[in-house]
Specification:
Helices cover 52% and strands 8% of the residues. It has helices at residues 3-21, 27-42, 47-52, 55-61, 79-84, 89-106, 117-130, 132-136, 141-147, 152-165, 167-182, 190-203, 217-225, 237-245, 249-266, 271-279, 285-292, 296-304, 306-316, 323-334, 342-350, 356-363, 372-385, 398-410, 412-425, 456-475, 484-492, 514-525, 608-612, 633-644, and strands at 429-432, 435-438, 499-502, 539-546, 552-565, 571-576, 604-607, 615-620. 48% of the residues are buried. The strands form two sheets. Strands 3-8-4-5-6-7 form a six-stranded antiparallel sheet, with helices on both faces. It has a two-stranded antiparallel sheet with strand order 1-2. It contains 30 helices and eight strands. Helix 12 (190-203) packs across helix 13 (217-225).
């Protein structure tokens, strides 16, 4: 450590000690002095390491108190780009301190109560991916003019992050992470595309030496910027259109099949794909089939509803809404157009006038070349094609996201009706025990603010559903037991079982009749105990989410989809999790799988015993009853062991909790 750095670190330590000694009400006044001292340290070589070694100290001193950084589990990686490029020194420094705090957590230097080391590592990998240019390039003129000497801070930060984690691990793990996310087929892929774009930009630079790292990036980059022979050098949309105009039928067919392979391989759609699909509208439906990569099911559906499909392509498919191509292809593959209400509902959607508030919400998410109606139609196609790709974003609206997914999966015409009400009327009316509930008249929902980080359909519909769901809960006030007993069947649909079990006492928060709860769950869902009856309709359920250390995080709403043997002969529960990324480590050996164990796109799974150990609420059909007595005590003891070692550990003591999903 140089003498200059040692002096600045000493001043930082003095400011940190002064803040730590101050009473809570006086600490906010100490923050500017501490941030200024940190800025001087971070500008020096070796400064990031010095600050990172003090991460626990400044975290506990309360430097993040009262800000978004105080809850790192909700931080959004993409927002780091703007924060670290800001001319506001305080914003740059506090974001840097947060990153170094998370690095300390990821490396196991200290245990954070709100974030596991795996979560911190996952977050930092995404942040590094979105800021790769800060790793490999010097500040540009604009940065120097805006930030001056402050521009050193983010570069020193990312160099230290990458050196600590390992450059090769950053890139390789990033590529692995992108593939892991894509295998779940989320509707929202903007962040994934941003990461791939950053990789592409950095790989094009001759002054960056990757070594053996990043060898799997070509497939990802080409899926967006050069999936076919005619686009391999990323010629630009106008030039590509000119090339299409000169192609004969065999060349067009070759191009179309190349796009289809890339799309179905990754779940990503190149803007060039939208250009060729619109071009092929006048070339014959057989080329549309080729371009969409349809099987016999999808082909027959397209040929039966050719006029509708053409209209959807004209209205929804543009370079800026390219993911609509994948949504359309998968919707046709599902064959749902054969359901009598679907085609008329989509024709209605094509001509649906949007109310001003709906148009404004959609306009925030799009550039000026894409109309709100086109953006919404893209969302409709993706939702209908990828019902398990709906995510709740960073919002406590898992119930509403689950409902949208369930309707898209099981009752798509009802979903289209919801979209029409929300987009045209700015109101949704549902019924609870015979009484109408209007989203316009309901006072408030679970989310404190209207969500903004959602797909177009969720962006419009979720605020209405959130208020209605909360109002249904309020109407259950005073009833004995958990309100989800009555709310879930009314909110989600008639197929939600009226039988209801919960293993937590609502009043005390303690475990309640756990063994009886598990016996009933086995009887209702395990094929060996329910007469080999498959799950017919998706069912709402609630889980106790835990982190990688098996510590309780909160209650969460999911959907039970099916129970069956995986390729290895293990009985697994396959479920939908609306939390944007289903692959999680829940501790005590419970690692949720999203691929490789028989999962379909969007499904998560766990062995039956492990899943049962995190379940706290489920519904079942009262008229279909298995035989609980046949479940062996040994098997139940294993499940209860998982519970007692994780979220149920403190619920054996006399403590009080609120047993309701967030």
């Amino acid at each position: 450590m140089t003498e200059k750095l040692a002096l600045r670190v000493a001043r930082f330590d003095e400011a940190l000690a002064a803040m730590a000694r101050a009473p809570a009400f006086a600490r906010p006044a100490k923050v500017p002095l501490l941030l200024d001292a940190a800025r001087l340290v971070l500008q020096e070589e070796g400064g990031c390491a010095a600050i990172a070694s003090r991460a626990q100290a400044f975290e506990e001193a309360g430097i993040f108190a009262g800000s978004d950084w105080a809850t790192p589990q909700i931080l959004v990686p993409s927002l780091s780009r703007g924060a670290l490029r800001s001319a506001d020194a305080g914003l740059v420094v506090i974001e840097s301190l947060s990153q170094l705090r998370l690095l300390a957590v990821a490396q196991g230097w200290f245990l954070h109560p709100l974030m596991s080391s795996e979560q911190a590592h996952h977050y930092l990998t995404q942040v590094l991916a979105l800021n790769l240019e800060l790793l490999f390039s010097a500040p540009g003129e604009a940065e120097r003019a805006q930030q001056g000497r402050l521009a050193r801070v983010p570069r020193n930060l990312f160099r230290y992050l990458a050196e600590t984690i390992g450059y090769e691990h950053v890139i390789d793990q990033l590529i692995d992470e992108i593939w892991r996310i894509l295998k779940q087929r989320p509707i929202q892929v903007d962040s994934v595309k941003d990461m791939i774009t950053q990789i592409a930009v950095c790989r094009a630079r001759r002054d960056i030496h990757w070594g053996s790292a990043g060898q799997g990036a070509d497939r990802l980059v080409s899926s967006l910027y050069g999936p076919t022979q005619a686009t391999r050098e990323d010629p630009g949309l106008d030039e590509y259109q000119r090339r299409l105009d000169r192609m004969d039928a065999p060349a067009l067919q070759y191009e179309a099949s190349g796009f289809a392979r890339a799309m179905h391989d990754t779940g990503l759609v190149s803007p060039y794909h939208a250009v060729i699909l619109r071009h092929l509208l006048g070339q014959g439906d057989h080329l549309l089939v080729e371009c969409l990569g349809l099987s016999s099911t999808g082909r027959d559906c397209l040929l039966c509803y050719s006029e509708l499909v053409h209209a959807l392509i004209r209205s929804a498919v543009f370079p800026g809404t390219a993911q609509a191509v994948y949504g359309l292809a998968l919707m046709l593959e599902r064959g749902i157009l054969y359901q009598p209400p679907i085609a008329p509902a989509l024709w209605r959607q094509l001509g649906l006038p949007l109310c001003e508030s709906a148009a404004d919400r959609l306009r925030h998410r799009t550039d000026v070349t894409i109309t709100p109606a086109a953006r919404l139609l893209e969302g409709v196609l993706c939702t209908m094609g990828l019902p398990l790709g709906i995510g709740q974003g960073n919002n406590p609206t898992c119930q509403s996201a689950r409902a949208l997914s369930m309707w898209a999966f099981n009752d798509p015409d009802y979903l289209l009706q919801m979209v029409a009400w929300a987009a045209r009327d700015d109101e949704i009316v549902m019924h609870f025990e015979g009484q109408a509930i209007s989203s316009r008249d309901s006072v408030g929902g679970v989310a404190a603010e209207a969500p903004v980080d959602l797909d177009p359909v969720s962006l419009l519909v979720v605020p209405h559903l959130d208020r209605i769901y909360a109002e249904m809960g309020r109407r259950c006030a005073g009833r004995e037991g958990d309100p989800h007993r009555w709310v879930n069947p009314e909110f989600h649909g008639w197929w939600s079982g009226r039988g209801f079990r919960i293993n937590v006492d609502v009043a005390s928060g303690l475990l309640h009749e756990l063994e009886d709860f598990l016996r009933h769950f086995y009887a209702a869902y395990h094929p060996m105990y329910n007469g080999n009856q498959p799950l017919i309709h998706p069912q709402p359920a609630g889980i106790a989410v835990t982190d990688s250390a098996a510590r309780f995080i909160g209650w969460h709403a999911i959907t039970l989809l099916r129970v069956s043997l995986d390729p290895s002969g293990v009985m697994r529960v396959y479920f939908y999790n609306p939390n944007n990324d289903s692959g999680q480590d829940w501790g005590d050996g419970l690692v949720v799988s999203t691929s490789g164990c028989g999962e379909q796109f969007g499904e998560a799974s766990l062995p039956f015993e492990q899943f049962a150990s995190r379940l706290y609420i489920f519904h079942y059909d009262l008229l279909e009853y298995g035989e609980p007595a046949q479940v062996s005590q040994e098997e139940l003891d294993r499940v209860m062991g998982y519970v007692h070692r994780s979220w149920g550990r403190e619920r054996l003591a006399q403590r009080c909790y609120d047993a309701r999903p967030v």
